[in-house]
Amino acid sequence: MKRTTLLTILTLCSLAAVAQPRKITFVAESATDSVMYIALHHRDRYILIDSAVRYGNNYTFAGDALNRGIYALLAQDRSTLHTDFTVDGKQRFSIKCGQGFKAADMKVKGCKANKAMFDYIAKLEWAKQRAQQINEMRKSADPAVKDKANNDFKELSDEMNAYEKRAFDQGDRFYFFSLIKMFADPEVPDTLSDKLSYYLTHYWDKVDFSDRNLVYTPNLYNKLNYYFFGAMYYSSYDTLVKYADTLLDRLVDDTLMLRYTLDHIMPRYYRSTKNIGWDALWCHLVRRYYLEGKCPWATEGDLTYKRRQAAYLEKSLIGAMGEELYMADTNQSIDPSDWISSHRFPERYVILWFWDPDCHHCQEQTATLKTLYDSLLTAPDRRFEVYAVGYESDTEKWLDYVRDHQLPFVNVGGANVNIDYQEAYNVHGAPTMIILNADRRIIMNKVLPTKSILPFLDEYERLHPEQATRQPSRWQRMGAAIKQNNAQKH
Q1: The overall pTM is greater than 0.90
Q2: Which CATH architecture is the domain 326-489 placed in?
């Protein structure tokens, strides 16, 4: 029999350590999970990396080394986040988790990076609670209490500023703090008149996009989310294009980063029914990045689909020429010479109103639109006509609703129409509103609340003063005759 020597034992232990450089243990006495998971962050989801079965109060994740980064500890359902933790340096450590996995209760052994991270998070949570207490004091009617609250708030602010400065100095040592520094908001000078422009211009200055691990952190996802759908939520199309291109052009040589960003933002912009300019930005991104060959991951089928969708959507974008509709009115004539044009009215603007009498929201909006329309009947310059298209296959139901509610618009509907208006104006639901100017170009392709129609036209004419007096003169006489005939039919 061979004798097991001390050297053999040490060698075997050494080989085991090399084979499994990672041994991360979470001690969770209050947890009830029979199994837990560690995962990467990826946008608003997780990519599972490993699992650990409960042994006593311990969950131990052993195996190959992980890349440096921020990871999630997930509950048994694979979606509930217990806590984030960092892998930074040594990968053999343990974390004792208190009730509720609160940062202040975490006890770390063998990993300075995690201890520093949990200390920082706990300090922020304490400061938030302290700020709430101070705000309650500020509500007091006692001037002395208010003065103390203001002094306490200044002391808290000074303390946290100093604490964060010390914490940020650890950015060169610990990955977590490098992310905090990297994704901090830019400091905007108080002297600037256009603070938003400065903020958007310098928003990405500190972000190191060469660090490809960023796509597996919540930081990049949250920063992208706020930039496009927070800071620029109400921005014009020109602003959206300017800053989207500025960022994406930085990423165009990095397929991973470019794809991550495009995949994140484009679904929100596609066929947006609320925000002006968002659908136009989607078309722009398709043409500038996909169709110019900057997206090597895209298949031919994907490119064909995006090309067709962009061409389809571009027909109804702001600035596009609105296609002229000819539709039968409430008399439902099958003779095209009796059909009414959507373009030939003397008013400067035409509101194309696609509505469904079975739609409760359509009913409400149509009623308020009627109130506005009626209030302007005697106005010297109503400026707009309403071309109301009944978006309902049951023609009798539509006709009954128009007559019962005495809708004063130019009411058209039914199957007698010259073109497919759903295709022409991207109508994929009701209500849909399209506003055409005097040249019958689209200037609005979202549903405006009735109270916003006149302010919108005022603002449009402020930005385009030539439109304030512009008339569709070549259609004026014909339009007036059409309106008179339509009124006699009712």
Answers
A1: no
A2: 3-Layer(aba) Sandwich (3.40)
